[in-house]
Write a structure and sequence with these properties.
The complex is a heterodimer of chains A (about 550) and B (about 325). Chain A is an alpha+beta fold and about 550 residues long. Chain A has three domains: about 180 residues, Up-down Bundle (Multidrug efflux transporter AcrB transmembrane fold); about 90 residues; about 120 residues, Gyrase A, domain 2, CATH 3.30.1360.200. Helices cover about 50% and strands about 20% of the residues of chain A. In chain A, the strands form five sheets. In chain A, strands 9, 10, 11, 12, 15 and 16 form a six-stranded antiparallel sheet that branches. In chain A, strand 7 and strand 8 form a beta hairpin. In chain A, helix 2 crosses helix 3, helix 13 packs parallel to helix 15 and helix 14 packs antiparallel against helix 15. The longest helix of chain A has about 55 residues. Chain A is elongated. Chain B has about 325 residues and is an alpha+beta fold. Chain B folds into two domains: about 200 residues, Multidrug efflux transporter AcrB transmembrane domain (Multidrug efflux transporter AcrB transmembrane fold, Up-down Bundle), CATH 1.20.1640.10; about 80 residues, 2-Layer Sandwich (TATA-Binding Protein). Helix content of chain B is about 60%, strand content about 10%. Chain B contains ten helices and six strands, in the order αβαβαββαβααβαααα. Chain B has a four-stranded antiparallel sheet with strand order 3-4-2-5. The radius of gyration of chain B is 25 Å and the shape is elongated. Classes of the chains: A alpha+beta (about 550), B alpha+beta (about 325). At the A-B interface, helix 9, strand 18, helix 12, helix 13 and helix 14 of A face helix 4, strand 5, helix 5, helix 7 and helix 8 of B.
C-alpha cells in the first residue's frame, strides 16, 4: 500500500499541480475579472488602447476562468417569471380567422352566412346561418388543418375542429400547443435578452426553466424593480380603428370590439375594433424624441409592408380618429389629418424622458409574444454582498487555521501531512469550481467551511487506525499499510452516503441551495482524493527517507 | 506531547444507561412533534410566499416606529425584526416581512416602493440592501421539492446501507437519521428560528453527517462481527464504539470548530443555516452512538458473516473492499 509506481506519483503530483494552476486566477480575482471583461469587449470589436492595456494585465497562457460569485455575494437582482404562453393561442386564432372566413364563404350557398362570435380565450367560434349544414362547415374548416411537424406530435394536426349546434369551434391541438409554447418561450428569452443587453448590464443569466418559466439574473443591477423596468411590459404596439369614446368602464361592447382605457386619463375609455390595422411586427426602428410642443415622445419607422398598409388606411380614413395602443392602453387617439405615406410617425402620450428611452428600447427589441408574470424576485445590494464575502472569507480562514493547529497538535508530523493535503484540497475545490464555472454562494462558502472540517475525517480515520495497529506491535511500515487498508471501507462508505445527500440536493435544490450542494459534492470528492492519495504519498516519501524504527502518531 | 481528547483504550459502557438515553431520545422526538403541531415553524417566505426587505440605517432601529409607518399601508400581516450581529455592534439593520399581496405574483413594484417610501419618511438615512419576494405558486413548489429531497435522500441512503451491510444496520441508521431530523425541526420550532430553503439544505447536510458518523461505527461493528464470532452483541457494539470513539470526537470537533467560526464571524445572513448544522453535528454524533447502535442491539444481527453467498440480500456486496 505504501509503494507508488512512478506513473502514479506523476499522476498525483500532476493533479495537485493542475489544481493550483487552475485555482490561481481566483487569488487575483478583481484583476482577472477586469481582464476577462476587457477581452470580451475587444472580441466584440470594441478596441481601445485602454482596453488593450487592461487585457494584457494577465498573461494569456495562464488560465483565466474564475469561480462565479452568486448574486448574494456580488449583489444584483434575480427574477423568476412565468410567460403567459396561453395568450399566444388567442393571437394564433385571430391570425387564423381570415383563412377560416374565406374557406366558409366559398360555400356560402350551402352553409349560409357566417359570423365570428366571442368564445373562450383560446378558441375561435363561428356561427353559421344554416345549422343543418354544420357537418359540411366542420369539414371545410378541418381541411385547413396542417400536420404538426414535431417528433412528439407526429400524426396529429395543428387544429381541432368541433361543433356545438350552429357554432363551429376551432382550437389548437395539444401537440400544436406544445410546439407553440416552445416557440413562445424561445422568442421571449430572445427578446428579454435583447432588452437586458441593450440596457448595458453585464453577464446576465437568462434561462428557461420548466415549461413556461424564465429565470433572469443580473449581477450589479440596483434592484429587481429596476430590472423589471428594463424588461418592461410586453411593449405590444398596435394601431386600431376607433369606434367611439366613453366614460364607463363597464360599457358593453359588441362582438369583435374591445374597450381599452386611455393612458393617464381617468374615466376615459375607447371602444376599438379588436383586429388591429397594423401591429409592432412591422416596426423597424424606434427612438426617443420630442414632439412639436417639446414633450417627450417616441418616434418610429415602419417597414415597407407596414408603411403600405398604414398609408392605405390613412388615405381611406381621413377625418376619423385612430388609436395608438400600447399594452392594452390607448396612448393617444389622434384624428387622421392627411394621408401618411412615409411609414414613420411619432407617438405622444403622458411620457417622461426616461420612459420614452425605455419604451424605445423595448419597441426596438420587439414585443414580447406574451405577458410576463413575476413569481419570485430578489435584490441584494452590492455592500451587503461584499460584507458577506468579507465575513465568509474571514470565517473560512479562521476555521482553516484552527483546524490546522488542532490537527498538528493531535497527530504531530502526520497532522502536518494532513494539513498539506487540506490546503491542496481547498485549492482543488476552487480549481474545479473555476473550470466548471460553478457559482459560489454564501451557503456555498458554508459548504467549503464544512468540507474543511470534514475533509480531515478521512485522515483521522486512517491515523486512528494506525495508532491501533501500532499497539499490536507491528513495525511502522506495516502499521501504516494496515491502517490505510482497514480504514478504507469506512472512508468510502461514509463519503458515499454524504455524496448521495449532496447529489440529491443538487437535483432538487434551487438557487443558493444548489450552490451549497456543488461545493459540498466537489469537496467530498477532492477530500477523498487528497486523504487517500496525497497524504499517503507524503507518508510514503517520508518513510522511505527516514526509515523510522518507531512511529509516533 | 500529543493532544489526546479521548484517552487510549476506553471501556465505556454505552448501553448502561440505554433506558435513559433511549427514553430521552424518544421523549425529545415526541416533544418535537408536539412543538411542530402546536408551536409551528417560523416559516420563511420561501415556503409561505411574501416579501422580506432588509433595511440598513445610520440611526438606530426603532421597531415600533417602523411598524407604525407600515400600518398605514394595510399590507396585512407585517413583522419587523431588528437584526443583531455581535461582531458588528454598529449595525442598524432590520428585517421587514409581509405576506403575499395578490394572486400568484410576487410583490409588485408599487407595494415595494410604497414600503420603501413609508420607511424613508421616518428615517432619511435608511437603505434597502436586500429585497426578496416569493409568489405563493413558487413557494408551494419549494415545499414540495424540499420534502421530496429529504425523502429521496433517506430512501437512497437506506438502499445503500442495505446493499453494503444488513437490513438491521439500515434500520438503525434510518432511526438515527429520522431522530436527527425530527429533533432539529423541534429545536427550530422551540426557538422560532426562521425556517427557509437554506435550512432544508442544512437538514440534508445533517442527513449526510449523521450517516457519515453512523456508518463509521457500523463499519467497525461489521469488522468485529467477523473477528469475534462468539462475543455478546452488546459487548461487541460497546467495543466497536469505544474503538472508534477517538475518531468520532476528533472529526466532530474539527467540524464544530469550523462551523463555530462561521457562526461567529460569518455574518447574520447565514446564522440560522450554520446553527442548524452545528446542532446537526452534535445531535448526529449523539445519535450514531445512542440511537443507531441501540436499535441495532435490539434488532440483533446475523452473525455468520463469513458465509458470503448464503443467498441473503445484502451480504454479497458487503465484503467488497473490507
Amino acid at each position: 500500500m505504501l509503494q507508488f509506481s512512478l506513473t502514479k506519483k506523476v499522476l498525483i503530483w500532476g493533479v495537485v499541480a493542475l489544481g493550483f494552476f487552475f485555482a490561481m486566477p481566483n487569488g487575483f480575482y478583481s484583476r482577472v475579472e477586469a481582464v476577462n471583461d476587457a477581452r470580451v469587449q475587444i472580441e466584440n470589436g470594441n478596441i481601445t488602447p485602454e482596453l488593450m492595456r487592461t487585457a494584457s494585465n494577465w498573461p494569456s497562457f495562464l488560465p483565466s476562468s474564475l469561480v462565479n460569485l452568486g448574486l448574494d455575494l456580488r449583489g444584483g437582482a434575480h427574477l423568476l417569471a412565468r410567460v403567459r404562453v396561453d395568450q399566444v393561442y388567442e393571437a394564433r386564432m385571430d391570425d387564423f380567422w381570415p383563412e377560416v372566413r374565406d374557406a366558409l364563404r366559398s360555400e356560402r350557398a350551402t352553409i349560409g352566412t357566417i359570423r365570428r362570435v366571442d368564445g373562450v380565450v383560446d378558441d375561435l367560434r363561428v356561427r353559421i346561418s344554416e345549422p343543418a349544414q354544420i357537418a359540411r362547415a366542420v369539414e371545410l374548416v378541418s381541411a385547413l388543418a396542417r400536420p404538426v411537424t414535431s417528433l412528439s406530435g407526429a400524426g396529429s394536426n395543428d387544429i381541432v375542429v368541433t361543433s356545438e349546434n350552429d357554432i363551429i369551434i376551432v382550437k389548437l391541438s395539444e401537440a400544436e400547443k406544445i410546439l407553440t409554447d416552445n416557440r413562445t418561450m424561445e422568442q421571449s428569452l430572445e427578446i428579454i435578452r435583447r432588452r437586458v443587453d441593450e440596457a448595458g448590464t453585464r453577464e446576465p443569466t437568462i434561462q428557461r426553466q420548466g415549461t413556461d418559466r424564465v429565470l433572469i439574473q443580473v449581477p450589479g443591477i440596483g434592484s429587481s424593480e429596476e430590472l423589471k423596468g428594463i424588461i418592461g411590459k410586453t411593449a405590444k404596439l398596435t394601431f386600431h380603428k376607433v369606434i367611439s369614446r366613453t366614460s364607463k368602464a363597464t360599457q358593453r361592447v359588441q362582438s369583435r370590439q374591445v374597450l381599452y382605457p386611455a393612458q393617464g386619463e381617468n374615466d376615459v375609455y375607447y371602444i376599438l375594433e379588436k383586429t388591429p390595422v397594423i401591429n409592432g411586427d412591422h416596426l423597424t426602428d424606434a427612438q426617443p424624441a420630442f414632439d412639436q410642443n417639446n414633450r417627450p415622445a417616441v418616434s418610429f419607422r415602419l417597414n415597407t409592408t407596414g408603411a403600405r398598409i398604414f398609408g392605405q388606411y390613412t388615405a381611406e380614413n381621413i377625418g376619423s380618429p385612430f388609436a395608438i395602443v400600447l399594452d392594452e392602453e390607448v396612448v393617444s387617439a389622434p384624428t387622421i389629418q392627411s394621408h401618411i405615406s412615409g411609414g414613420s410617425g411619432i407617438i405622444t402620450g403622458q411620457f417622461g424622458v426616461e420612459e420614452t428611452t425605455l419604451l424605445s428600447i423595448q419597441l426596438r427589441a420587439g414585443a414580447l409574444p406574451a405577458e410576463l408574470e413575476y413569481l419570485q424576485e430578489s435584490t441584494v445590494g452590492p455592500d451587503l454582498g461584499q460584507d458577506s464575502i468579507d465575513a465568509g472569507t474571514l470565517a473560512c480562514l479562521i476555521a482553516f487555521i484552527a483546524v490546522l493547529v488542532f490537527m498538528s497538535l493531535s497527530y504531530g508530523l502526520f497532522g502536518i501531512f494532513a494539513n498539506i493535503a487540506l490546503i491542496i484540497n481547498v485549492a482543488l475545490i476552487f480549481a474545479i469550481l473555476s473550470v466548471i464555472s460553478g457559482t459560489l454562494t454564501l451557503p456555498g462558502i458554508a459548504g467549503i467551511v464544512l468540507t474543511v472540517g470534514m475533509a480531515v475525517d478521512a485522515n483521522v480515520l486512517v491515523f486512528e487506525r494506525i495508532r491501533e495497529e501500532l499497539k499490536k506491535a507491528k513495525n511502522p511500515r506495516r502499521a501504516i499499510e494496515l491502517g490505510y487498508e482497514r480504514a478504507f471501507s469506512a472512508i468510502i462508505d461514509a463519503n458515499i452516503t454524504t455524496l448521495i445527500a449532496a447529489v440529491i440536493l443538487l437535483v432538487f435544490g434551487s438557487g443558493p441551495v444548489k450552490g451549497f450542494a456543488i461545493t459540498l459534492g466537489v469537496g467530498i470528492i477532492t477530500s477523498v482524493f487528497t486523504a487517500i492519495w496525497v497524504t499517503r504519498l507524503l507518508i510514503s516519501i517520508w518513510i522511505d527517507r527516514k526509515r523510522p524504527k518507531i512511529l509516533e502518531i | 506531547m500529543r493532544l489526546k481528547l479521548v484517552p487510549e483504550g476506553t471501556k465505556v459502557d454505552f448501553f448502561k444507561l440505554t433506558k435513559i438515553t433511549f427514553g430521552a431520545s424518544v421523549f425529545a422526538m415526541i416533544l418535537s412533534v408536539f412543538l411542530f403541531f402546536f408551536n409551528g415553524l417560523n416559516l420563511g417566505i420561501d415556503f409561505l410566499g411574501g416579501t422580506t426587505i432588509r433595511t440598513d440605517s445610520q440611526q438606530s432601529v426603532d421597531v415600533s416606529a417602523y411598524r407604525a409607518a407600515l400600518d398605514t399601508l394595510e399590507l396585512g400581516d407585517v413583522t419587523v425584526t431588528e437584526i443583531f450581529d455581535i461582531t458588528k455592534p454598529e449595525l442598524n439593520a432590520a428585517q421587514i416581512r409581509f405576506e403575499a399581496q395578490s394572486g400568484e405574483e410576487a410583490a409588485t413594484v408599487e407595494v415595494v416602493s410604497a414600503v420603501k417610501l413609508a420607511l424613508m419618511s421616518i428615517d432619511e438615512t435608511i437603505t434597502f440592501p436586500q429585497v426578496e419576494s416569493v409568489g405563493p405558486e413558487v413557494s408551494g413548489e419549494l415545499v414540495k421539492s424540499a420534502i421530496t429531497a429529504i425523502l429521496t435522500a433517506i430512501a437512497a441512503v437506506l438502499f445503500y446501507i442495505w446493499l453494503r451491510f444488513e437490513w438491521q444496520f439500515s434500520v438503525g441508521a434510518i432511526a438515527a437519521l429520522v431522530h436527527d431530523i425530527v429533533v432539529t425541526i423541534g429545536i427550530f420550532s422551540l426557538l422560532q428560528i426562521k425556517f427557509d430553503l437554506a435550512i432544508i439544505a442544512a437538514l440534508l447536510t445533517i442527513v449526510g453527517y449523521s450517516l457519515n458518523d453512523t456508518v463509521v461505527v457500523f463499519d467497525r461493528v461489521r469488522e468485529n462481527l467477523r473477528k469475534y464470532k462468539k462475543m455478546q452483541l452488546k459487548d461487541l457494539l460497546n467495543m466497536s464504539i469505544n474503538e472508534t470513539l477517538s475518531r468520532t470526537v476528533m472529526t466532530s470537533l474539527t467540524t464544530l470548530i469550523a462551523l463555530i467560526s462561521l457562526f461567529v464571524l460569518g455574518g447574520d445572513v447565514i446564522h440560522g443555516f450554520v446553527f442548524a448544522m452545528i446542532w446537526g453535528v452534535i445531535i448526529g454524533t449523539y445519535s450514531s452512538v445512542f440511537v443507531a447502535s441501540s436499535v441495532l442491539l435490539r434488532l440483533g444481527v446475523k452473525r455468520d458473516w463469513d458465509k458470503l453467498n448464503d443467498g441473503k440480500a445484502g451480504t454479497q456486496f458487503s465484503g467488497i473492499d473490507a
